[in-house]
Amino acid sequence: MAVLLEFEKKVERLRRKIEELKEKGKHNPNVIKEIEEKFRRKIEEFYSHLTPWDRVLLARHPDRPHAIDFINNTFTDFIELHGDRHCGNGKAIIAGFAYFKGTPVCIIGQEKGRDTKGKIERNFGMPTPEDYRKALRVMKLAEKFGKPIITLVDTPGAFPGIEAEEHGQSEAIAKNLLEMAKLNVPVISIVIGEGGSGGALAISVANRLLMLENAIYSVISPEGCAAILWQSQDKIKEAADALKLTSSQLKEMNIIDDIIPEPLEGAHKDYNFTFLKFTEYVEKHLNELLNMKPEELKEDRYMKFRKIDTL
């Protein structure tokens, strides 16, 4: 059964009324066409005025496509690699090699899990040090064999547990930032849902940073921001406004490079459309980067971060 957010329920009520009107006027094609056109305009108007907090809810939507869905539907012949060759195998990050439109690539994806069992297994998409070390190990393999790297960002943040700290969480994230900056191969990162704090940045130091239209990318969650600044969860909507975490806001500040369109009511409403646009935009940027030499790629990555919020 599909999950409906509060503002989606308003749309569904309107949709039911439209269906009732269409049923009453089913013998008059002109009436039906007029009703459908009015409904389309109403929906477009509604979704063009979503607040940042509405976007947060869409980015977290339970039915939104996850990393594993993109891997299974936009890549082929995926082979997953396991283990960090240090102390374990985190399951919040999926890492391996696949083909993208015929090009062999490395794919790194943060996976939240779909049902209760899957969420527990995937640690709710919160990577541990083992996850980040595994991701870096696979990225270094990609560099060794000259394969482009594509990462899928979808995490509320790195796992904050005591065991993670004991295993070197901050060091693992810091090392990923350093090593990704020096990679000699193209790196494209796509925020497909939540991009939370250093947990997201640890796999998104890229030549090109893309976002799905309703994804979010921020230094902290609205809940965390509200707790720190106002000591109240009543202020989460204000926090979402202040954080400038939507794709359009981040594009204006030069933090991201491109926005991947979603279906009008969100990626969860039409997976095929979402996968099609994802493939189209990633292919465009990948083709540009494949023409660059290793030193050019590193300089390009450096300049990307230098120009943030300069225009």
Could you please describe the fold and organization of this structure?
The structure is a single chain. With 311 residues, this protein is α/β, with parallel strands linked by helices. The chain folds into two domains: 8-49; 54-306, 2-enoyl-CoA Hydratase, Chain A, domain 1 (Alpha-Beta Complex). It contains 14 helices and eight strands. A hairpin with a 2-residue loop joins strand 2 (93-100) and strand 3 (103-110). Helix 1 packs antiparallel against helix 2, helix 6 (129-144) runs parallel beside helix 8 (169-181) and helix 10 (222-229) packs across helix 11. The chain is globular, with a radius of gyration of 21 Å.
CATH architecture of the largest domain: Alpha-Beta Complex
How would you state the average pLDDT, rounded? 90
- Number of helical segments with 4 or more residues: 14
CATH class of the largest domain: Alpha Beta
Blueprint (SSEs and pairs):
Elements: H1 6-24, H2 29-47, H3 52-59, H4 67-74, E1 76-81, E2 93-100, E3 103-110, H5 116-121, H6 129-144, E4 149-155, H7 162-166, H8 169-181, E5 187-196, H9 197-201, E6 208-212, E7 216-218, H10 222-229, H11 236-243, H12 247-252, E8 258-260, H13 271-290, H14 294-306
Parallel strand pairs: 3-4, 4-5, 5-6, 5-7, 6-8
Antiparallel strand pairs: 1-2, 2-3
Helix pairs in contact: 1-2, 6-8, 10-11
